[in-house]
Amino acid sequence: MDGPALRVSYNRVALALVDGLPQGAAIRAELPEASIRAIEDGFRFAWLPIEHHMVLIEAVRRHLGDRGAYEFWRRATLENFSGRAFQIPLSAIRRLFGLDPHALAAQSARYWPQYSRELGTMRMGQRGSTSAVLEVEAFPSALLKSGTWVIGMAGGLAAFFTLCEVEGTCTPRVLDAERGRVDFELRWGERG
Fold this sequence. Notes:
Elements: E1 5-7, H1 8-19, H2 24-30, H3 33-41, E2 47-49, H4 50-81, H5 84-97, H6 101-115, E3 116-117, E4 121-128, E5 131-137, H7 141-144, H8 148-164, E6 168-176, E7 181-188
Antiparallel strand pairs: 1-2, 1-3, 4-5, 5-7, 6-7
Helix pairs in contact: 1-2, 1-3, 1-4, 2-4, 3-4, 4-8
């Protein structure tokens, strides 16, 4: 199977979170049966065609709004990080680099090709003492048009702050939609 895709596991966790929402039944009702089956029945590390992810994130945004969608994807990412598949990498990051947003941002850029397929590249850009920029290039421009993916990705990256026990924000900037160029600026305070 070719084409843009993400891993099934992230979407499976998100769909389970949808089921726990008051709006869960309405969100699920908007999803094509083929998308639900692909998410629920696919092997967790298999590639999920991006179309299935997009219908899920669009439905979440329609029912929760921009801020609610941002928060939803932050929670989905935290839920994924709490799973067994992420415990070994998080442990290694903690041991090697210390668990801070810089380390998590750098590792996100490093592992982007294992998490996504044909969704452009991600690299660590400018870095300050309490800030970092993740740069995405060549992301499919058609997927940027509604802004939903950008909101969801920013929410997912904001999970770093919770993991690291710091207050912070992730602000996305679409620099060139036609070329799929998006920056995600992470800013945080000192650990409390």
